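Data deposition worksheet. Section B asks for the primary sequence of the deposited chain exactly as it was used as input, without tags or linkers unless they were present during the calculation. Section C holds the resulting structure in token form. Section D is free text for depositor observations; keep each observation to a single sentence. Incomplete worksheets are returned to the depositor.
Section A, Depositor: J.P.
Section B:
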Amino acid sequence: MVNLLLRLGIWFLLTADLSVANILIGLVVSLLLPRCFTAHEPMREWLIIAWETVVALPQAYWEACQMILSPHRHESITMDRVRPNRSPRLIFLDIFLITFTPKTVVLKYHQAGQYEVHRVSDRKTP
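Section C:
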């Protein structure tokens, strides 16, 4: 059920259309995509990622306004650690959330458990 909701949510984000026809197409596509039953995440992890998504929406708008009003001329590349015991689905959602905000983008996911993240800022970071 969580898989279906996640796929439908991504479908609606990609299409930005909530018409009846698009909902039916999204439902069919979500059901026809192959499933992976190898990893079962605890519900606590899904609740945490849902909260982070709610927090990321206003944060993204705030960062976009900051970038419009003041120049962000400094950039850095950092290595962020992946939380322990993350399934591929949760890693995908982590990458999506990091990339969703305008000041950060994941350049690469390393199998050793790190994200390579590009950040822009308005001042030089030490």
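Section D:
The CA atoms of residues 13 and 59 lie 18 Å apart.
The chain has four helices and three strands.
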